[in-house]
Amino acid sequence: MNITSIVLAGVGGQGILLASRITSRASVLAGYDVKLNEVHGMAQRGGSVIAQIRYGKEVYSPLVCKGGARVLMALEQVEALRYADYLAPEGLATVSDQTILPVTVSSGKAVYPSDIYARLQRVFRNLQYIPAADIAAELGNSRAANTVLLGAMSKGLDLETDCWHQAIAECLKPATTDMNIQAFNRGRNI
Amino acid sequence: MKKILTGNEAIARGAYEAGITVATGYPGTPSTEILESATAYRDSMYLEWSPNEKVAFEVAAAASMTGARSIVTMKHVGLNVAADPLMTFSYTGAVGGFIACVADDPGQHSSQNEQDTRHYARFAKIPVLEPASSQDASDFMKYGIELSEKFSVPVILRTTTRVSHSSGLVELKDRIDSLKPLAFEKNPQRFTPLPAWGRILRRQVEERLSLLGKEASQSPMNRIERGNGKLGIIAPGIAYLYVKEAFPEASVLKLGFSYPFPDDLIREFADGVEQVLVVEELENFLEDHIRAMGIPCEGKKYVPVCGELDPQTVRNVKIRLEGGEPETPVTLPEVSDLPARPPMLCAGCPHRGIFYALGKFDVIVTGDIGCYSLGVFPPLSRIDTILCMGGGISMAHGMEKAGEKRSVVGIVGDSTFFHSGITGLLDIVYNKGKSTIIVVDNRTTAMTGHQDHPGTGRTLMNEPTYAASIEELGRACGIRRIVTINPYDLENTIDVLRDELSAGEPSLIVSRAPCILKEKSGIGLPFTVDQDKCRQCKACLKLGCPAIEFREDEVRINTKLCTGCGMCAQTCRFAAITRQNEERKA
User: Fold this and answer.
1) What are phi and psi of B555, to 5 degrees?
2) CB under 8 A, 24+ apart: contacts of B458-466
3) Which residues 6+ apart lie within 8 Å of B5 measured at CB?
């Protein structure tokens, strides 16, 4: 079965749900059947969250197998490592340079890896490391960091640019559409 | 027209299309969004959050008796609470179609236990429907209502977390209203099962079972998909989806209407294959019965009993079935020591104040279910038991009566209090206990997504209404010592606790401050640490606030997370923590 799987990872409250809505909408516009799964409930309490999207001619399972994802997009660095085993060996890892300390670290009980970038390079054969917040700030809106990342991640998939643009227009407030499309294009052109 | 809907949204949509006019429930992950999404159809149906699942069930059951098509929604443990009306409603039967939408949580993503609700269907002798996808969930609501009205039987629609919270394309259809008159028809022999009548109903329930079994064998919710005829897999609910991808060549019996067991269909399927495998999540519900029918089959020999199924687990079933052993996944050193990121109390959460204050006393804390359950984690580590909704109160009484010498404090949230806390308070006073009970009132049902309850003054439909008072209910139960406190004032909270713990009579402390996630107007200018004054004593870290970071031997406050609650400043003996003067940066 020819199914493309995507995993989005991050911290509750970062905007995973919106990214997953845009991606699944783009897949539907491209004519695919799509299934997705998002973790609800605990997400806002700062926990680790993952969303899974699968598209193809006919998709059964909403969950991705370990090693089955064509792309992994991570809004936070440690979360990229935490869910690394979902990515296929030749898959594309699109990772934001964002660090959010878990409470286990901020209270001094655990350690945030000091060599996180080196670890990312060792774990992911195909890595895009994106200073998404900086790029978004350059464009004049720090909230578009996720859309920049989405643009960068989109290069690993076979969905047309038009589908992405229309999905963004449908999923976001009209006032922010243009700016987000700009951010998306910026990421896609890295 | 097709739309991507979560399973829960699809159930709500299906309820609308099936002509439901009454929908009740109590929040519980993963079921909560069913009723929330259904508010989109408020022009066609009455919706309410009830104080608990038993009340919700009774309201919906009576609506059904009056001829209205009704649903009640809850999570699996909620059905434990609603089990009493469920069992007898099976006897009286439904008039207007009735579906109990129950969401199980295999793997316990957000539950204190794991339950297979199909056992309840068998226990109550009523049908259970198991949708695999959002499209199923929507379709089965319509089939469920038809089934319910054809056999006058309440129906359970049982989802799991991955069905409720996964999304897929759903075909939207028009609503078909019921033509039943909305009027209760007097019939005591049916609706009041006193023993003499109940015994007659009991036999009807038994006869109904075999009719339902035949119906299940012919139902469009079940179907045989022929493969190569060697391996035949019976797969209910979401297991079907994983099986289709892991065993593309196998014959499959997809079960959506799994109880009463569709014996004829199962037999027909088994006859057409060489080997029968049952792939079901949680219990060996089907497997046991199929074997009892005399059909050789395997299931739990290869499929885990505990936890949820997923594509990898089902692939491993295939490997084991073929005589192999699944590869143990290799953990790279780069990912083996990652810091955990558990959910935690938000920065500025009022519950933090209570747990911090309790930390000053040698007490046992009987807790309950809600955001405040997170007080069990370090560094607060201030909850000792969690059993069920309302247990926080009754269990404090139980420990005292058992002879526990230390003070025992019971904690419940506001929604939990209205759910099942009042009966515990009555017990303490009536049976001469001395417990100190704290109701942590953050003015909402928080963990499940900020739903209203009888104390908030707002209904599910966002209409203003009477707000029940926790303090007045405490008074009505006979408690004389009732104190209302602001948990952000740590010193006062500690003083009150000291007084109430030594009171020698029942005491109710209402700790009231709105949830900081919901009531954002409570957010003030952030605090900051003066590094010159800070001695790194780490007293502030004992709060476990995610905004306070200890890094490179310095204590810093993350101004992006800090809500300006000021609790950390109160813990500092060196006056090193103060509120910033400037406006926070965007």
Assistant:
1) -100, 125
2) B459/B48, B459/B49, B460/B35, B460/B39, B460/B47, B460/B48, B460/B49, B461/B39, B461/B42, B461/B47
3) B13, B134, B138, B167, B168, B170
Contact B256, B268 (CB under 8 A): no
| Tokens at B403, concatenated | 């002879």
Terminal alpha carbon distance of chain B:
41
Q: Do A36 and B378 touch (CB under 8 A)?
A: no
Query: pLDDT digit of tens for each residue in chain B (586 aa)?
Result: 999 999 999 999 999 999 999 999 999 999 999 999 999 999 999 999 999 999 999 999 999 999 999 999 999 999 999 999 999 999 999 999 999 999 999 999 999 999 999 999 999 999 999 999 999 999 999 999 999 999 999 999 999 999 999 999 999 999 999 999 999 999 999 999 999 999 999 999 999 999 999 999 999 999 999 999 999 999 999 999 999 999 999 999 999 999 999 999 999 999 999 999 999 999 999 999 999 999 999 999 999 999 999 999 999 999 999 999 999 988 999 999 999 988 889 999 999 999 999 999 999 999 999 999 999 998 999 999 999 999 999 999 999 999 999 999 999 999 999 999 999 999 999 999 999 999 999 999 999 999 999 999 999 999 999 999 999 999 999 999 999 999 999 999 999 999 999 999 999 999 999 999 898 888 999 999 999 999 999 999 999 999 998 888 899 999 888 999 999 999 999 999 999 886 555 4
What dihedral do alpha carbons B430, B434, B436, B441 form, nearest 10°?
Answer: 10
* Angstrom distance (rounded) from CA B429 to CA B474: 10
ω into residue B378 within 30 of 0, thus cis? no
B371/A contact by beta carbon, under 8 A: yes
Chain A: residue whose CA lies nearest to B448: A41
B549 contacts chain A (CB < 8 A): yes
Can you tell me whether residue B327 is helix, strand or coil? Answer: coil
Minimal CA separation from B458 to chain A, in Å: 22
**Of A48, A63, A81, which has the smallest distance from its Cβ to B311's Cβ?**
A63
Inform me whether the C-beta atom of residue B244 falls under 8 Å from chain A C-beta atoms: yes
What residues of chain A lie within 8 A of the CB of B342, using their CB? 47, 102-104
Chain Cα centroid distance, residue B546: 26
Give contacts of A103 with chain B, Cβ < 8 Å: 341-342, 344, 544, 546
Do residues B448 and B27 lie in contact, with contact meaning Cβ atoms separated by under 8 Å?
A: yes
Chain A residues in contact with B233 (beta carbon < 8 A): none
Q: What span, in angstroms and rounded, lies between the C-alpha atoms of B379 and B390?
A: 25
Nearest to B71 by CA among B47, B36, B105: B47
β-bridge pairing A33-38 and B166-171: antiparallel
The angle at the Cα of B42, spanning B39 to B45, to the nearest 5 degrees, equals 110
- The residue written with tokens 């199914």 in the block is A3
Residue B445 CB partners (closer than 8 Å, separation 6+): B27, B49, B370, B413, B414, B415, B451, B452, B453
Q: In this predicted model, what pLDDT tens digit does every residue of A14-50 receive, in sequence order?
A: 889 899 999 999 999 999 999 999 886 555 677 888 9
In this structure, what token pair is assigned to residue B303?
Answer: 């499929």
Residues composing chain A: 190
Query: In 10 A of CB A61, how many CB atoms?
Result: 30
Q: How many CA atoms lie within 13 A of B19 on its CB side?
A: 19
Assembly ipTM: 0.94
The Cα B235–Cα B271 span in angstroms is: 16
**Per-residue pLDDT tens over the stretch B185-207:** 999 999 999 999 999 999 999 99
Mapping DSSP onto H, E and C, the string for B375-411 reads HHCCCCCCCCECCCCCHHHHHHHHHHHHCCCCEEEEE
